[in-house]
Amino acid sequence: MTQNNLNYYLNKFNNTKFNNEEIINTINNIEVILNNNNDDDNDDDDYDNYNKYKAYTMLGYYYGKTHNYEKSVSILIKAHNLTLNKLNYNDNDNNKTWDIFSKLIFPLISKDNKEEKTTIDKLNYNLDKLLSISNLGTTNLLTLDHSFWYGYLNTNPKYILEKYAKLQTKLFPFIKNTKIPKFIKNTNKLNKIRIGIISGGLLPESQINISTIHSSSISDSFYPTFLRLSKDKFDIYFIYYNKSKPIDSSKDNDNNIYIPYDIKDLNDVYKVQTIIYNLNLDILLYLDLHISPMINYIALSKLAPIQMCTHGHPVTSGISRNIMNYYISWESAEISTAQDHYTEQLILLPKDDIWEYYIPRNKDKMSLLTGESWKHIDRKDMFFLPNNCNINKNWYFCAQSSFKFNITFINILKSILEKDTNALIILIQNRKETYTLDDRLLSCLQFNNIDLNRIIFIDKMKHHHMMSMYKNCDVVLDSFFFGGDTTSREAFEIGAPIITFPHKYLGSRWTQSYYKHMGFTDLIVNNSEDYINKSIEVATNKEYSQKIRNIILNNVNKLFYSNKAITYWENMFNTLYLSHYDELDTLENTLENTLENTLENTFENTFENTLENTFENTFENTLEN
């Protein structure tokens, strides 16, 4: 084996992000070196074999995180066998790390319902099995950084994520602390409530303007609301995860906290937990658990008296309620039994108005993200589309990423193509962020005998080009069972008609909630057949489609600039704070009464025992004398 070359590429791998195009060349070179040295398998050189082992585990992790699950598992088996058969020592920690990792990754985009059920059953079995093992010892946090993807399995996310959080605390008990931080009582109840808001998806506050506030769906959803909270009632501490403090921080809020690195090990977790704990917050709110997986490790400990999370990724944290107390959601988007989907206590903001202060992403038919107009872009001007996107066909456009595609949705696409012979289905591919998932989708489409000549894959677009897609398509398809949120609101800004099929879980229910708030529900369907028929009706009946567009455009203003939303959040924070405040008073009174009773009983018992012992001793001594 060419050790110098292998070491060079291993070091390069460690210093290259997965979305960097150079990573592909690095991976390919590592594989070439390993394949060219298969004849060396009889070599007993520990150093040589250990570098092979490192290479295998790096490749296994890379392929697992980039959705090539089968290849990941096969490579990690090679790594495991190498330590057992070739190395003169057994690296238990690493072996356990990658054995656990391989058991918790799974293939997204199932080819049929049976495969999907098998995937869910296998994952649950593996989680149960791992939880039953007494000694899982590993110190590598990468073992458990896959939870984001569990939300896209068609099962109650609570069942999986609760086990996942338990496994995290089992593996890393050092970073779990259930001791409640001291609740600093505001004796006159006039002091401000100290709220920490932690996220990996927010730009620093000083960098926010009319364009950058739309830099991510997290920013779009939350910044406009939280920046408007009453400064007389609340002290807000934005905690920016994996963000450095801006060089020009003159406009920055002194309260803001920057965690300028991504967590690498247990010591990093403890450091960040300590920083947050020392803020003496009353409330700590997690915006986007699972999206930045290392934030989940921070959340395993009680760092503020009241802890809560919300819908940055619209699934439960899975963390026990004594640590993560509340999940904040919207009554309009949840079903009546939604509490069953959360380990936290579900708190619902009122349904009578929009629950967040949304601001439009467009103004005067211009994208605020790019500053470019889409007003005059018609089908014939859409040069960014491939040549096979026939402008005379019926365009069915889905703006969602491929990982949101369930087999039910894929079967819907197949039926649309069969029933509308003039249909083209236009999907977005984004290999830089979803890696091989688009290949998995293509394989699934082929397996289900879908006409690929009528499926058009287009690259991720500039924002004004995306708006022109909404303008020029005949109908927008909301993916099932995980649909759009920010993308639905911006499509409604253009008047685009969206067909939506709400499931029982939150991630599929945003579009129908927005429709209900606008007072238009014709495009909310309850089954696959209705989805297919309604999509075709809108796409083929141009007069009906234009009528819908006009209705949406006349009502879309109801989704934006809701001052009530700010009041809802303020009332929620205040109510929960006062509730815990009153519980603290009750607890203190109970403790005082318990202590008094204990002291009183202890004194009486001690006094009685002393008298009894004194009498007995005196009586015995008297008799003896």
Task: Pick out its properties.
single chain, alpha/beta, seven-stranded parallel beta sheet, five-stranded parallel beta sheet, 19 helices
Explain the layout of strands and helices.
Elements: H1 3-14, H2 22-36, H3 46-65, H4 69-85, H5 92-104, H6 113-132, H7 157-171, E1 193-199, H8 217-226, E2 234-241, E3 257-259, H9 266-277, E4 283-286, H10 293-298, E5 306-309, E6 326-330, E7 345-349, E8 362-363, E9 366-367, E10 394-398, H11 407-419, E11 423-429, H12 431-434, H13 437-447, E12 455-459, H14 463-472, E13 475-477, H15 486-494, E14 498-499, H16 510-518, H17 528-540, H18 542-555, H19 563-624
Parallel strand pairs: 1-2, 1-4, 2-3, 4-5, 5-6, 6-7, 10-11, 10-13, 11-12, 13-14
Antiparallel strand pairs: 8-9
Helix pairs in contact: 1-2, 1-3, 3-4, 4-5, 6-7, 11-17
Architecture overview:
- By secondary structure, the protein is α/β, with parallel strands linked by helices.
- It contains 19 helices and 14 strands.
- Strands 3-2-1-4-5-6-7 form a 7-stranded parallel β-sheet, covered by helices on one side. Strands 12-11-10-13-14 form a 5-stranded parallel β-sheet, with helices on both faces.
- The longest helix has 62 residues, at 563-624.
- It is globular and about 75 Å long.
- The termini are far apart.
